[in-house]
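Researcher: Here's the sequence for the chain we discussed earlier.
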Amino acid sequence: MQRVSIHDLHREIILNSTSPGFDAPPPKVLHKDLIPEGPHNAMLPAWTTRTFEPHPLHVVRLFDVYLTGEGLLFDRNKNLISESVTQYEPAGIAEAHRRVLDAADPRTEWGSCVLLRKRGDSNYGHWMIELLPKLWATEDLCRIDDCVIPRRSGAMEAVMKTALRLSSNGSYGLIEHSDDEVIFFKQLLFVEGLTAHGVYMSPLVFAKTDKLITGRADPKKIFVSRRGAPRDLANEDEVIASLMAVGFEVVHPGGMSLEEQATTFARASHVVGVMGAGLTNIMFCAPGAKVINLAPATFPDTFFYLIAQNRKLDYTEIRGTNLTEGPGWDQPFLISPQDIVGCL
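Model: Thanks. This is the structure I predict for it:
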């Protein structure tokens, strides 16, 4: 399979600019010594970059491209467009390429569409941080007819449509795209440079985040439960009891609307929770809010650290041990309630 770059294709340059730089002090991490060498080394580039320099940002209009999978693009000759590959493994790319090769008469879209798809776009955090802001970066620059979004159902579908309604400048048509579908676009707006997962996050990601906050209330201390999901606290009941004793209340983001999540976190003076989708909501916290992120020592993730730096939060990680031995991170783990209360 041949790869091509968007910079070598026939395209219209809509924006060729840079995101502003920002300072990022290293995170406070309790029990850093528990982190294995591999995950630790994976996080070091983000953790040790004291100043993120201005970063290239591009918006281009591509012509005659195929879309399939979670945001994979192919040119008119069915060559893979390199910049569309995010967190994809070779087997998934090969399968997507076969679908495009076999697509004899794919659905065709003619309007001015902006692509809001990438690997992992069914995840709340990926949508709110890595995809929705692409529309914000584009809509003031050119005409947009439609947004291309993943076809999802239930709570995730409601989140996407609510976020678009509350934060965008206009009312756009929605092209809901299934992962196994091939669509041929006569023109497609592609945004590059806002994020590089785990490595970089532009301050422009939060350009319109506050538009999603529909109300405010008195400050609260909240514990973000992840009970029953992969990577949850094995001793959550013990942790909750300790936190409630110092004025915390428990919230369950998975059962809340987007507006409820935004309002709840916007009023939070203190947030404690397990590293996961629900904790993405710290993006709504006011500057200076104290955030304690609980994570298995084996989990190599800097996503929430970068949110906290951009939103100017008081951020701490506490690393814990898996309930059972092994290198995985989607399993129950333990953190001492005394450690959490001590960090408050």
